[in-house]
Amino acid sequence: MEGYTIETNEMPIEEAKKLGAMALFGEKYGDTVRVVKMGDASIELCGGTHLNNTAKVGTFKIVSEASVAAGVRRVEAITGREVINAIRTANDSIQQAADTLKTTPAELLRRAGQVMQEIRTLGHEKDALRAKVAASQAVELFGMAKAEGNVKVVAAKVEIDEMDAMRDLADKVRDRGEDIVCVLASVVGDSKINFAAVCGKEAVKAGAHAGNILKQVAKIAGGGGGGRPDSATAGGKDPSKLEEAMAAVNGIVASMLK
Prior knowledge:
Helix content: 40-55%
CATH class of the largest domain: Alpha Beta
Distance between the termini: 88 Å
Number of strands: 11
Largest sheet: 6 strands, mixed
Strand content: 25-35%
CATH topology of the largest domain: Diaminopimelate Epimerase, Chain A, domain 1
Structural class: alpha+beta
Order of helices and strands: EHEEEEHHEEHEEHHEEHH
Shape: elongated
CATH architecture of the largest domain: Roll
Number of helices: 8
Oligomer: single chain
Number of domains: 2
């Protein structure tokens, strides 16, 4: 925008060096070089073409910068009308974002901050509600436990898509009794089953092993998995076999007990 005149001259390389012309690292230069000078702002050795005045570049905006080789980086930019087009596109995006958030471009940042805070608050409320529901389910599931030898066994299908949430529910059931064995299953989509199993300390001492229980249960449903004696997860591929798999839990546990 300063409107520097661009001067291009060819001269001996030693004369160019005396002028302070900048040479690009690693380039090979002959005895005669092309020197491009832009006012007092830039003087360099360059074989490329240039405008005759810097103002003709118009607005200049860097759009990317990246490594292309060791010690070498590439900077890409747009100029003139392309910058204007980029600004228009950005302004359109800002306006669309403002419309979506029911605000103005000037208030967009403040409104975006409000929305993010609302999302965080809703997330905390969801977690708290899920914890209450899980606690209630845990009480209900624990009440369904059936004695198998000297342990209590719970085998139930639940409506939980996320494995972490189902594992958390199983843990809550286990927390209600150290002699508990809990196996939960959930159908996800059309052809996937998630299994989670836990065993309390006393149940493990009695011979129950969550990982080995699920190996057998999941196999019935066309899947596999396993884990530690006290906690395990597995997957199945045949929802039509889920009832059969869950019905086998008590017998599998009974065969493990000492």
